[in-house]
Design brief:
mainly alpha, 5 helices
């Protein structure tokens, strides 16, 4: 299910919204000059973390990993960035948008349960290898 093109587009849109949410937080939660710095730095930091750490052979990505991590580590990263975007909106004074993003993240992961299972079982598969 998670490799369905509609689900891949949904995940991509969630990624974009979450990354942008960090910028909204930086802009709304801090005074100048920090807001000018954080509106750029927070989204860039989230995007770098998202793009750098991956599970080798991940079918939802290109299969390559700049920094290889276990499946559970990747799941934590995904939930931290996507959930962090929801929290960032909440802290930026946009509670309805934060709640909406949180619900969408939960619904996505419930529908993409096969990806969650793949990530979790990827840990046990890599630990068994000598």
């Amino acid at each position: 299910m998670s490799l369905n093109p509609v689900m891949l587009v949904a995940r991509f849109l969630l990624e974009l919204v979450a990354v942008a949410s960090f910028g909204v937080f930086g802009w709304r939660a801090f005074e100048e000059p920090w807001s000018f710095l954080l509106v750029v730095a927070l989204p860039v930091g989230a995007a770098v973390v998202w793009g750098t750490f991956a599970v080798p052979g991940d079918p939802s990505r290109d299969g390559r990993a700049r920094v290889a991590v276990s499946g559970s580590t990747r799941l934590v990263i995904e939930l931290s960035v996507l959930g962090g975007g929801a929290l960032a909106l909440q802290l930026a004074g946009l509670p309805h948008w934060g709640l909406t993003l949180a619900v969408l993240v939960i619904v996505y992961h419930a529908l993409a349960y096969d990806r969650v299972v793949w990530l979790v079982t990827r840990d046990s598969a890599t630990r068994r290898r000598p």
